[in-house]
Amino acid sequence: MAVPDDTQTQADGPTSGFRSLTQAELMAEATARFGQDYLAWAFTCPACGDTATFQDFKDAGATADRVGQECIGRTLGALTKPEPTHTRGCDWAAYGLFRGPWKVTLPAADGKPEREMWCFPLADPPDPARDVPRDGSPSR
Ligand SMILES: [Zn+2]
Q1: How far does Cα 35 stand from its chain's mean position?
Q2: Over 70: is that where the pLDDT of 5 sits?
Q3: Given a cut of 80, is residue 52 above it in pLDDT?
Q4: Among residues 113, 114, 96, which one has the least CA distance to residue 105?
Q5: Tens digits of per-residue pLDDT, 99-128?
Q6: Whether pLDDT at 133 is above 80
Q7: Integer angstrom CA distances of residue 60 from 9, 52, 137
Q8: CA of residue 131 to ligand 1 center, whole Å
Q9: How far is the CA of 73 from the centre of ligand 1 (A)?
Q10: More confident residue, 140 or 118
Q11: Does the pLDDT value for residue 27 go beyond 60?
């Protein structure tokens, strides 16, 4: 079969949001975006767009293993019957019917083999121009 060499239209960036990476790569990327303090690490819910940090989940009383796995709405009452009580987020989970969109490979540990888990994408890094007050000196 012939493969045209200059008609490829594939973009470099993610087209479906899917990514496959190792736990080490995920942690390196999170550190690069948010710094060493993991409480500032944030994931964005692919369903509702809510961005929640480890700190947000901690404040809501959730265990850390929910971060990046579930929308914070689940912790805040999105599943409460008969009326949901959450004030933000939704009931989405990375391990639900529509998984991911990120697939993370965890290393073998404690006698268990390497395994994969799904998670939400990391949030965009905080905007330094907005979040870090400068000391008034004009740049450049
Ligand atoms: Zn959500």
Answers
A1: 15
A2: no
A3: yes
A4: 114
A5: 999 999 999 999 999 999 999 999 998 876
A6: no
A7: 44, 11, 39
A8: 24
A9: 6
A10: 118
A11: yes
| All residues at 6 or more sequence positions from 87 whose CB lies less than 8 Å from its CB, including other chains | 76
How many residues make up the chain in this entry?
140
CA of 140 to the centre of ligand 1 (A): 41
What is the distance between the alpha carbons of residues 59 and 55, in angstroms, rounded to a whole number? Answer: 6
Going by their DSSP bridges, the two strands 102-106 and 19-22 should be labelled as parallel
In the numeric block, the tokens 């080490």 are attached to 24
Task: Tokens for 78, please give them.
Answer: 């999105």
* Cα 51 to ligand 1 centroid, rounded to whole Å: 8
Ligand 1 centroid, distance to 35 Cα (angstroms): 24
pLDDT at 41 over 70: yes
Which stretches does DSSP call E strand in the chain?
19-22, 42-44, 51-53, 102-106, 115-119
